[in-house]
Design brief:
six-stranded mixed β-sheet, six-stranded antiparallel β-sheet, single chain, globular, alpha+beta
Length: 701
């Protein structure tokens, strides 16, 4: 490091240490005054603690050159922001506000030494720029992980309701519901109570905690809970909406709740609504600190509760209507596949026809202005109109009131808006997704009148259609974030390879020019040779990057075949002998995304071998072990020092992030003069569990 830069970094670190409290206070006030979302005045204390931690991590990075503490701080910050409902851009802007708090301290430090002041400002900007870039990357990765986790848990609920209808299936749904609430809301416990409407009481069936060491938790002391004696639960059941309590202890002292105030501090009670009534109640609690649940978290809890209620309803339908449920199972099986929205809705409409005995079915979605319903898809008899006004129509009433409407006498029913002799009768159900009214599901022209059983069946199918729409949107969001991640990786790879090579080439060209002007022609000739070598390396990097981008992996391709094709080109281009050993693997457990990321990890590892290892041979081993796909890339090169490489370049970080995006982890074993061994472990297919998360280990030796 340049001596002036090092002096500036150390001086700035000293200033941060001496003025930490003042800087943290100014930084905290600026964030609090400009924030678009402030949970409450107590948030100032939370902010002040965070700014102190951030300043200390910055000080250590400037003083030692190690970004490890800063990495930990940014990782914790990204998790806290997602938990608190803060947007990525708002938090990045808040990080940059640190500059406004530090600049006055820098200017007051040594006003006579302008060069040192500018050097400190440059170091500050460099550090803040790295912090913002790394935070955005961590935020995207954490968002991606949570979205995938939510989708996995949603699918687990759907799979649970496909089981044989018995007590075990119901308990499995409730257990998965409690686990989803604990995981997605980041609470410490969750109780599930089934609502006994005949006796107007809540019967406890499940208690779960976030830690196995705590064991089952019961938030209510009494085994049976009478909602009428508990204002909090009574309010929730009457309104059919979640109820949050920030300070249960205070509420208990006021006699407002029967919760054990000595243990739980904050709770969120969520009803599981099914077919016009509450089936169960989930109560999520926090013991360690007071918690204000954001609107997004409450909405997410409602979504989980709706999915759980739908699963419970499906189990009850299995018990009562075996033949009907065979069709419902077919719809749900389709939901577990990544089909396009039209394909799913077509099956929903076909099943609506089959189960109700109608001759036609259709799905209408709400227009952007919310004034009309637009026909999206239909099966059987074509609807009379492709658009339906929301106001004054039967469909609009179903949408506004959130319940099914029937018209068995359309000739005299003004709510149909459009009359036609071909319409015998109509059954319309609202489509409600994520708390929003998005459209309606129609069934029409049944030879007999629509019955209560038809109402019940169409209600369930409407729930399936709504989940299908939500599922498709969630997949689109996951794909969009995956594109952002890939762009971020590509930008860093270009910066680390091509951009640096061009910078070196520019310096070399300048040096050659100076040598020529001074008549040092022999030195200039050597300089030109170095420029040619640098340009050749840059050319290889560019061609390799272009090949990797163009080398699309088709759906269903075989992993050994894909790897052999890549290695053939690699051997010819680099002259390095690479051996491939792929043991028996169940290819059905490898999704297209897994296949792509695994190939990219191997390509990145081989690029490092070519550029840095000075190796004569390498080997790739791929095998299955303990329900994981294990990929090992080894070389006989010169190895490297782990600590020096930890913050140099992006190749290792990119490989770690790719493994983490699949729920796996990466290990790197190396030492100077002893070659390098990279090992990636990826959970396989349907047996995949998110136990490792984004954990990645680097060990020497």
């Amino acid at each position: 490091m340049d001596s002036q830069v090092q002096t500036a970094a150390l001086t700035l670190a000293s200033l941060l240490e001496q003025n930490q409290e003042d800087i943290a206070n100014i930084w905290t006030i600026r964030i609090f005054q400009t924030a678009s979302f402030c949970p409450g005045d107590h948030w100032v204390d939370v902010l002040r603690l965070s700014t102190r931690q951030g300043l200390e991590a910055m000080r250590l990075a400037l003083a030692t050159g190690s970004f490890q503490k800063l990495e930990v701080y940014l990782s914790q910050l990204s998790s806290a922001c997602l938990r608190g409902g803060f947007e990525c851009g708002d938090t990045a802007q808040a990080l940059l506000m640190c500059r406004e708090a530090i600049l006055p301290v820098i200017r007051r430090s040594r006003s006579s030494d302008a060069d040192l002041i500018w050097a400190m400002i440059s170091e500050l900007d460099r550090c803040l720029h790295w912090m913002v870039q790394r935070f955005v990357s961590l935020y995207i990765a954490e968002t991606m992980r949570r979205l995938r986790g939510q989708r996995e848990r949603k699918l687990a609920l759907l799979r649970s309701s496909l089981q044989t209808p018995d007590l075990l299936a119901t308990e499995d749904v409730l257990r998965q519901t409690a686990f989803s609430l604990i995981t997605d809301l980041e609470v410490e416990c969750c109780d599930i109570y089934l609502f006994d409407r005949d006796h107007n009481q809540l019967n406890p069936v499940l208690g779960m905690s976030a830690s196995a060491a705590i064991g089952p938790v019961r938030l209510y002391e009494n085994q049976l809970v009478k909602p009428q004696a508990d204002p909090l639960l009574r309010q929730m059941l009457e309104q059919g909406e979640p109820v949050a309590c920030w300070n249960v202890q205070q509420a208990a002292q006021a006699g407002k709740t029967g919760l054990r105030a000595t243990n739980v501090k904050s709770i969120l009670a969520v009803p599981l609504p099914g077919h016009g009534q509450v089936l169960a109640v989930a109560i999520a609690g926090v013991f360690s600190d007071y918690r204000e649940f954001t609107p997004e978290q409450i909405e997410l809890a409602q979504e989980i509760a709706r999915d759980a209620a739908l699963a419970l309803e499906n189990i009850r339908l299995q018990e009562k209507r075996r033949l009907e449920n065979q069709s419902i199972q077919r719809v749900m099986a389709v939901l577990l596949q990544d089909l396009d929205l039209d394909g799913v809705l077509r099956i929903v409409c076909e099943e609506a026809q089959h189960l109700t005995g109608s001759r036609g079915s259709a799905v209408y979605l709400l227009s952007e202005n919310g004034q009309r319903l637009i026909l999206i898809l239909n099966t059987g008899d074509r609807p009379v109109s492709t658009q339906i006004p929301v106001e004054g129509s039967l469909a609009g009433m179903a949408l506004h009131e959130g319940r099914i409407f029937v018209s068995n006498n359309p000739a005299s029913d003004e709510r149909l808006c459009v009359h036609n002799g071909n319409i015998v009768n109509v059954l319309v159900a609202p489509l409600l997704a994520n708390g929003m009214r998005i459209g309606v599901l129609y069934a029409a022209n049944k030879p007999q009148d629509f019955s209560e059983d038809d109402v019940r069946v169409l209600s369930v199918l409407a729930g399936q259609a709504a989940i299908a729409i939500e599922h498709a949107r969630l997949l689109d969001k996951i794909r969009y974030i995956a594109i952002l991640e890939e762009r971020e990786r590509l930008a860093r790879e270009i910066h680390d390879n091509l951009a640096q090579a061009l910078s070196v080439l520019k310096l070399q060209a300048s040096s050659v020019g100076d040598l020529l002007l001074s008549g040092q022609f022999e030195q200039a000739r050597h300089g030109v040779q170095e420029m040619v070598q640098t340009a050749a390396e840059a050319h290889i990097d560019a061609r390799e990057a272009i090949f990797n981008l163009r080398n699309r992996i088709a759906a269903g391709e075989n992993l050994p075949a894909v790897l052999e094709a890549c290695l053939e080109r690699y051997r010819n281009a680099c002259g390095i002998d690479v051996r491939l050993d792929v043991q028996d693997i169940s290819m059905a457990l490898l999704s297209d995304t897994m296949l792509l990321q695994i190939v990219r990890i191997i390509q990145e590892a081989l690029t490092n071998v070519r550029k840095h290892a000075e190796a004569s041979s390498a080997s790739i081993h791929v095998y299955e072990h303990a329900h994981q796909l294990v990929v090992v890339v080894e070389d006989n090169g010169r190895g490297f020092d782990v600590e020096q490489a930890r913050h140099c370049g992006v190749g290792l970080q990119v490989m770690k992030e790719r493994a983490a995006s699949l729920g796996g982890y990466l290990e790197i074993h190396t030492a100077t003069g002893h070659g390098t061994r990279i090992k990636a472990c990826i959970p396989l297919g349907e047996r995949r569990h998110w136990t490792h998360g984004a954990v990645a280990g680097i060990t020497g030796g």
